[in-house]
Design goal:
This protein is α+β, with helices and mostly antiparallel strands and 241 residues long. It has eight helices and twelve strands. It has two domains: 152 residues, Jelly Rolls (Sandwich), CATH 2.60.120.10; 82 residues, Orthogonal Bundle (Arc Repressor Mutant, subunit A), CATH 1.10.10.10. The strands form three sheets. A four-stranded antiparallel beta sheet has the order 1-8-3-6.
Protein backbone atom coordinates (compact mmCIF):
# COMPACT_ATOMS: atom_id res chain seq x y z
CA UNK A 1 0.00 0.00 0.00
CA UNK A 2 1.33 3.44 -0.94
CA UNK A 3 1.78 5.82 1.97
CA UNK A 4 2.27 9.56 2.04
CA UNK A 5 6.02 9.15 2.44
CA UNK A 6 6.38 6.80 -0.54
CA UNK A 7 6.20 9.52 -3.17
CA UNK A 8 6.72 13.27 -2.83
CA UNK A 9 4.48 14.07 -5.82
CA UNK A 10 1.68 12.01 -4.35
CA UNK A 11 2.05 13.96 -1.10
CA UNK A 12 1.66 17.27 -2.91
CA UNK A 13 -1.50 16.12 -4.66
CA UNK A 14 -2.94 14.92 -1.37
CA UNK A 15 -2.28 18.22 0.36
CA UNK A 16 -3.80 20.14 -2.55
CA UNK A 17 -6.90 17.96 -2.43
CA UNK A 18 -7.25 18.66 1.29
CA UNK A 19 -6.98 22.40 0.68
CA UNK A 20 -9.55 22.24 -2.12
CA UNK A 21 -11.90 20.38 0.23
CA UNK A 22 -11.54 23.08 2.87
CA UNK A 23 -12.23 25.80 0.32
CA UNK A 24 -15.20 23.80 -0.97
CA UNK A 25 -16.63 23.67 2.56
CA UNK A 26 -16.45 27.46 2.73
CA UNK A 27 -18.21 27.68 -0.61
CA UNK A 28 -21.08 25.45 0.51
CA UNK A 29 -21.63 25.36 4.24
CA UNK A 30 -20.47 28.79 5.32
CA UNK A 31 -21.12 30.63 2.07
CA UNK A 32 -24.85 30.63 2.76
CA UNK A 33 -24.27 32.30 6.12
CA UNK A 34 -21.93 34.83 4.56
CA UNK A 35 -24.41 35.64 1.78
CA UNK A 36 -27.28 35.85 4.25
CA UNK A 37 -25.37 38.31 6.41
CA UNK A 38 -24.77 40.67 3.49
CA UNK A 39 -28.32 40.20 2.13
CA UNK A 40 -29.64 42.61 4.77
CA UNK A 41 -27.80 45.49 3.07
CA UNK A 42 -28.90 47.20 -0.16
CA UNK A 43 -27.53 46.34 -3.58
CA UNK A 44 -25.21 48.80 -5.28
CA UNK A 45 -24.45 48.56 -9.00
CA UNK A 46 -21.31 49.60 -10.84
CA UNK A 47 -20.81 49.85 -14.58
CA UNK A 48 -17.82 48.27 -16.30
CA UNK A 49 -14.76 50.44 -15.71
CA UNK A 50 -16.26 52.25 -12.71
CA UNK A 51 -13.97 52.45 -9.68
CA UNK A 52 -15.49 50.96 -6.53
CA UNK A 53 -12.68 51.81 -4.10
CA UNK A 54 -9.66 54.10 -4.32
CA UNK A 55 -6.55 54.19 -2.14
CA UNK A 56 -7.53 57.55 -0.65
CA UNK A 57 -11.15 56.63 0.09
CA UNK A 58 -12.44 56.81 3.66
CA UNK A 59 -13.48 53.18 4.00
CA UNK A 60 -16.46 52.43 6.19
CA UNK A 61 -17.64 48.96 5.18
CA UNK A 62 -16.98 45.47 3.86
CA UNK A 63 -17.74 45.03 0.16
CA UNK A 64 -19.38 41.74 -0.87
CA UNK A 65 -19.38 40.93 -4.58
CA UNK A 66 -22.81 39.60 -5.62
CA UNK A 67 -22.39 39.54 -9.41
CA UNK A 68 -19.70 40.46 -11.90
CA UNK A 69 -15.93 40.76 -11.53
CA UNK A 70 -13.78 43.25 -9.64
CA UNK A 71 -10.18 43.92 -10.60
CA UNK A 72 -7.61 45.07 -8.02
CA UNK A 73 -4.64 47.08 -9.23
CA UNK A 74 -1.96 49.57 -8.30
CA UNK A 75 -0.40 52.38 -10.32
CA UNK A 76 3.37 52.77 -10.25
CA UNK A 77 5.22 56.08 -9.96
CA UNK A 78 5.78 55.85 -13.73
CA UNK A 79 2.02 55.58 -14.31
CA UNK A 80 2.03 51.88 -15.21
CA UNK A 81 -0.91 49.78 -14.05
CA UNK A 82 -0.06 46.61 -12.10
CA UNK A 83 -2.84 44.02 -11.79
CA UNK A 84 -2.89 42.36 -8.36
CA UNK A 85 -6.02 40.19 -8.39
CA UNK A 86 -9.45 39.67 -9.91
CA UNK A 87 -12.41 38.92 -7.65
CA UNK A 88 -15.51 36.96 -8.54
CA UNK A 89 -18.91 36.68 -6.79
CA UNK A 90 -18.84 35.87 -3.05
CA UNK A 91 -15.53 37.70 -2.52
CA UNK A 92 -15.20 40.11 0.40
CA UNK A 93 -12.89 43.09 0.09
CA UNK A 94 -10.63 44.73 1.03
CA UNK A 95 -9.67 41.95 3.44
CA UNK A 96 -6.34 43.46 4.48
CA UNK A 97 -8.13 46.54 5.79
CA UNK A 98 -11.03 44.60 7.29
CA UNK A 99 -8.90 42.12 9.24
CA UNK A 100 -5.58 43.92 9.80
CA UNK A 101 -6.84 47.52 9.80
CA UNK A 102 -4.17 48.23 7.20
CA UNK A 103 -4.90 51.24 4.97
CA UNK A 104 -6.09 50.28 1.52
CA UNK A 105 -3.38 50.87 -1.11
CA UNK A 106 -5.20 49.64 -4.20
CA UNK A 107 -7.85 50.54 -6.73
CA UNK A 108 -10.85 48.19 -7.05
CA UNK A 109 -12.66 48.53 -10.36
CA UNK A 110 -15.68 46.80 -11.91
CA UNK A 111 -14.23 44.63 -14.68
CA UNK A 112 -17.74 43.66 -15.74
CA UNK A 113 -21.13 45.03 -14.82
CA UNK A 114 -20.93 44.41 -11.08
CA UNK A 115 -23.33 44.34 -8.14
CA UNK A 116 -22.15 44.53 -4.53
CA UNK A 117 -23.51 44.88 -1.02
CA UNK A 118 -21.66 46.94 1.58
CA UNK A 119 -21.91 46.15 5.31
CA UNK A 120 -20.77 48.54 8.07
CA UNK A 121 -17.37 47.40 9.26
CA UNK A 122 -18.48 47.18 12.91
CA UNK A 123 -21.31 44.80 12.00
CA UNK A 124 -19.03 42.69 9.82
CA UNK A 125 -16.43 42.50 12.60
CA UNK A 126 -19.06 41.19 15.03
CA UNK A 127 -20.20 38.65 12.45
CA UNK A 128 -16.62 37.37 12.02
CA UNK A 129 -16.16 37.14 15.80
CA UNK A 130 -19.08 34.70 15.84
CA UNK A 131 -17.96 32.80 12.71
CA UNK A 132 -14.40 31.43 13.02
CA UNK A 133 -14.90 28.93 10.19
CA UNK A 134 -15.79 31.79 7.83
CA UNK A 135 -12.68 33.68 8.93
CA UNK A 136 -10.65 30.57 8.11
CA UNK A 137 -12.28 30.29 4.69
CA UNK A 138 -11.67 33.95 3.85
CA UNK A 139 -8.03 33.70 4.93
CA UNK A 140 -7.58 30.49 2.92
CA UNK A 141 -8.83 32.26 -0.19
CA UNK A 142 -6.61 35.25 0.55
CA UNK A 143 -3.51 33.06 0.89
CA UNK A 144 -4.34 31.24 -2.33
CA UNK A 145 -4.69 34.59 -4.10
CA UNK A 146 -1.38 35.71 -2.64
CA UNK A 147 0.29 32.68 -4.19
CA UNK A 148 -1.20 33.59 -7.57
CA UNK A 149 0.02 37.17 -7.16
CA UNK A 150 3.55 35.99 -6.36
CA UNK A 151 3.62 33.80 -9.45
CA UNK A 152 2.26 36.68 -11.54
CA UNK A 153 5.04 38.95 -10.25
CA UNK A 154 7.65 36.30 -11.05
CA UNK A 155 6.44 36.11 -14.65
CA UNK A 156 6.32 39.90 -14.90
CA UNK A 157 9.92 40.11 -13.70
CA UNK A 158 11.02 37.43 -16.16
CA UNK A 159 10.17 39.71 -19.07
CA UNK A 160 9.09 36.73 -21.22
CA UNK A 161 5.85 37.88 -22.80
CA UNK A 162 4.52 34.47 -23.85
CA UNK A 163 4.92 33.20 -20.28
CA UNK A 164 2.93 36.15 -18.98
CA UNK A 165 0.18 35.48 -21.49
CA UNK A 166 0.05 31.76 -20.72
CA UNK A 167 -0.01 32.36 -16.97
CA UNK A 168 -2.97 34.74 -17.24
CA UNK A 169 -4.84 32.37 -19.54
CA UNK A 170 -4.33 29.43 -17.17
CA UNK A 171 -5.27 31.44 -14.08
CA UNK A 172 -8.40 32.92 -15.64
CA UNK A 173 -9.38 29.55 -17.08
CA UNK A 174 -9.29 27.91 -13.65
CA UNK A 175 -11.17 30.73 -11.98
CA UNK A 176 -13.64 31.89 -14.62
CA UNK A 177 -13.54 29.41 -17.50
CA UNK A 178 -16.70 27.69 -18.71
CA UNK A 179 -16.01 24.01 -19.36
CA UNK A 180 -17.24 22.40 -22.57
CA UNK A 181 -17.92 18.71 -23.17
CA UNK A 182 -14.88 18.37 -25.43
CA UNK A 183 -12.52 19.40 -22.63
CA UNK A 184 -12.05 22.96 -23.85
CA UNK A 185 -12.76 26.08 -21.81
CA UNK A 186 -14.43 29.31 -22.84
CA UNK A 187 -13.11 32.59 -21.44
CA UNK A 188 -15.15 35.78 -21.50
CA UNK A 189 -11.94 37.69 -22.10
CA UNK A 190 -10.85 39.82 -25.04
CA UNK A 191 -7.35 40.57 -26.22
CA UNK A 192 -7.26 44.08 -24.80
CA UNK A 193 -8.43 42.78 -21.41
CA UNK A 194 -5.83 40.01 -21.50
CA UNK A 195 -3.19 42.60 -22.36
CA UNK A 196 -4.21 44.66 -19.34
CA UNK A 197 -3.94 41.68 -17.01
CA UNK A 198 -0.60 40.57 -18.42
CA UNK A 199 0.87 44.08 -18.43
CA UNK A 200 1.57 43.94 -22.18
CA UNK A 201 0.47 45.81 -25.28
CA UNK A 202 -2.42 44.41 -27.29
CA UNK A 203 -0.07 43.93 -30.25
CA UNK A 204 2.26 41.77 -28.16
CA UNK A 205 -0.62 39.70 -26.83
CA UNK A 206 -1.95 39.21 -30.36
CA UNK A 207 1.46 37.96 -31.49
CA UNK A 208 1.85 35.54 -28.57
CA UNK A 209 -1.70 34.23 -28.99
CA UNK A 210 -0.81 33.52 -32.62
CA UNK A 211 2.01 31.27 -31.43
CA UNK A 212 -0.36 29.42 -29.10
CA UNK A 213 -2.94 29.07 -31.90
CA UNK A 214 -0.25 27.48 -34.09
CA UNK A 215 0.24 24.88 -31.35
CA UNK A 216 -3.52 24.21 -31.28
CA UNK A 217 -3.68 25.31 -27.64
CA UNK A 218 -6.08 28.24 -28.00
CA UNK A 219 -8.48 29.76 -30.48
CA UNK A 220 -9.69 33.35 -30.68
CA UNK A 221 -12.95 34.81 -31.93
CA UNK A 222 -14.58 38.23 -31.65
CA UNK A 223 -16.72 36.86 -28.82
CA UNK A 224 -14.29 34.98 -26.59
CA UNK A 225 -11.04 33.09 -26.08
CA UNK A 226 -11.13 29.30 -26.12
CA UNK A 227 -8.56 27.21 -24.25
CA UNK A 228 -8.50 24.06 -26.37
CA UNK A 229 -5.89 22.18 -24.34
CA UNK A 230 -5.44 23.39 -20.75
CA UNK A 231 -3.02 20.64 -19.72
CA UNK A 232 -0.94 21.29 -22.82
CA UNK A 233 -0.83 24.99 -21.99
CA UNK A 234 0.31 24.21 -18.44
CA UNK A 235 3.01 21.85 -19.68
CA UNK A 236 4.32 24.44 -22.10
CA UNK A 237 4.50 27.10 -19.38
CA UNK A 238 6.26 24.69 -17.02
CA UNK A 239 8.79 23.83 -19.72
CA UNK A 240 9.73 27.52 -19.94
CA UNK A 241 10.44 27.87 -16.21
Amino acid sequence: MKTITDNADWTVVTRESILKERIRIMDTKDQTRLSSFFAQYPLKRFSKGEVILRPDDDLTGAVFVVEGQVIQYDITDQGAEMIVDVFRPNAVLPLDWLINAKPNQYFYEAFRETTVRIAPVENFARFLDESPSIVYGLLSRSLWAMGVMQRRMAHLMSGVSINRVMFELITQCKRFGVAHSDGSYELDLHEDELARRAGLTRETVNRELGKLKDRQLVSVSHKCLMIKNLSGLEKLLNSHL
